[in-house]
Amino acid sequence: MSFPKGFLWGGATAANQCEGAWNVDGRGPALTDVKTGGSVNAPRLVTYIDKDGNPHAEPESPRGIPEGAHYAVLDDYLYPNHDGIDFYHHYKEDIALMGEMGFKTFRMSISWSRLFPNGDEEVPNQKGIEFYRNVFTELRKYNIEPLVTIWHFDTPLYLEEHYGGWKNRKLIGFYTRFAKTCFEEFKGLVKYWLTFNEINNTVMFLEMFGNTASDEDYQNAYQILHHQFVASAKAVQIGHEIDPENKIGCMICGITFYPMTCDPSDILLNRHTWEQGIFYCGDVQCKGKYPTYAKRLWKEHNVELEILPEDLEDLKKGTVDMYSFSYYMSTVVTTHTVTDKVGGNFSAGARNEYLQYSDWGWATDPTGLQYYLEMMYDRYELPLLIVENGLGAFDTVEEDGSIHDPFRIDYYRQHIQAMDKAIQNGVDLIAYTTWGCIDLVSAGTGEMRKRYGFIYVDKQDDGTGDYSRSRKDSFYWYKKVIASNGENL
Ligand code: BGP
Known about the structure:
The protein is of the alpha/beta class. It has 16 helices and 16 strands. The longest helix has 28 residues, at 215-242. Belongs to the glycosyl hydrolase 1 family.
């Protein structure tokens, strides 16, 4: 195995899917308290669950909040992001378990509305700052390097309701203040930062296999992205000023796309899908300017962006130090009619007969990961981090309390082998944080039963469970992997 010394093995979570304590110590409600996390960026393919447990389709308008649903539901939501797995009160126990596995790094995010309850305040909530300082200090006790996502879908609800969310340019200023506060307050405790989780979701899933989007949807999506690009670039500049040691990355939802046939129209569509879905955001954030094909993308949907001259300066000055991405699956695109569609949480494509699919229809494809790694390293020549990868699956607790998850171990083994091949081929991969290292609420569906963890959490979708934590077989396996720096698979 070729993993470099100091390789950052670990796991990943997001505040909105694990912290809970949604109204504790001054935290304000976030958009993700009332909608599943994925819906924030990919409004079409998710449902929200009302207090009687009934799923409802998303409303027509992208990013719209179901009318009358939010506060009414908030108090006793059944499948809630806002309860999470109560990491807020269990963090010491959870970090001890991560320490036991030998984690070198832990990816987590900071809840914006815990620091700025409405999002537009000038002064942060001290209790929120205290919480994260305690978490980072606890991580350092175990020599675990925090890897912190500043925004993981959870815009304060107030900003959505009163400003229209990221469509509004004002959000750049609010986010920048939030990011600056994080860099200042956690200086010396955190060195690795990611500005926006899966920033590309906004545009990637607008139109795939039968989903339709209007020109207005495209207009909004590209304008939202422009605001987020500028916000990210400003954050990178501020982060570097506050501490030159800071390493700040982008975070892209990584999917490997294949053409279904060798029909030239499929090959061209595949290239255009990569451009719209994956390269567009990475290119702006890594190269500091809009790519040449952006004009084609905008023209296709009559998009006219509001871009100020100083924005372009910011993009140039605020390029990221590293490229991070999530990777769960590949998908297949075609111009031909497809009847057998399979989907991820946010994506859907044609079935690939060479691959196996998870219970949630995600294609397991480690070779696609190698492909992605080699392609992105060549494109950007920046250190790469895989900050999400994993298999959402059902777990069964045996009578003696043990949990056997060989399927999960197999999945990881294959992906780690693919990473090894990419490293041997020259890729500078520095970190691997598996998604949901501790079971948490699903972003796409709001469920608990779709589990990713090495650590099982007794919280069930029917509201039962005592939140106790236990070790799955994969826990012991991953511990060996880390101890041997990837040799012992
Ligand atoms: C990514 C999100 C995560 C996460 C993961 C798994 O897109 O960044 O927040 O949840 O997908 O998705 P799901 O929870 O739908 O299984």
